[in-house]
Specification:
The protein has 7 helices and 7 strands. It is an alpha/beta fold and about 170 residues long. It has a single domain, classed as 3-Layer(aba) Sandwich (Alpha/beta knot).
Length: about 170
């Protein structure tokens, strides 16, 4: 199938996208985000707060080795992580249903105007911390039409990363 080796992947050009996980408790969700990040050559994953870190058996179960290819770091505090990203020129978006959030799926060129983007996903129960929400430049929302108004974080991450991939690849 002509897949890259881990070494080739690490040396390849990455999408200028950082995924921030804010206190995600499920190692399976974390592993799934790694696997999606690998698929779209995401630049980096920032694991914050209570997030487990590789190597971990449960992360590996869903990441299937992507935790070896995708660059990652751990941060004790999500607020500090987002501040650092903003200082480095990233436009930051909380993926959360919020007042005045930008809906994904339309031609959202304003989302990638800065060129470097960070998207923040919150805890499975509590969502993105309020302090982090206030620090982010905007909130983006995945439109939903059913009776539920939330998605599992691994599903939400896959959708949002795909949408950012389309926008950032078109821009570059």
């Amino acid at each position: 199938m002509h897949r890259m080796s881990v070494e080739q992947y690490r040396a390849s050009e990455k999408l200028p996208l950082v995924v921030v996980l804010d206190n995600v408790r499920s190692q399976n969700n974390i592993g799934s985000v790694f696997r999606t990040a690998d698929a779209f050559r995401v630049e980096h994953i920032a694991l914050c707060g209570i997030c487990s870190t590789p190597p971990h058996r449960e992360i590996h179960k869903t990441a299937l080795g992507a935790e070896e290819s995708v660059a990652w770091s751990h941060h004790d505090d999500t607020v500090e992580c987002v501040r650092e990203l903003k200082e480095r020129g990233y436009k930051t978006f909380a993926v959360e249903i919020a007042h005045n959030s930008i809906k994904l799926g339309a031609q959202n060129t304003q989302l990638v105007a800065a060129g470097k983007v960070a998207i923040v996903f919150g805890n499975e129960i509590e969502g993105v911390q309020e302090e982090v929400m206030e620090l982010c430049d905007e909130a983006i929302e995945i439109p939903q039409e059913g009776t539920k108004h939330s998605l599992n974080i691994s599903c939400a991450a896959a959708i949002a990363i795909w949408e950012m991939y389309k926008l950032l690849r078109t821009k570059n």
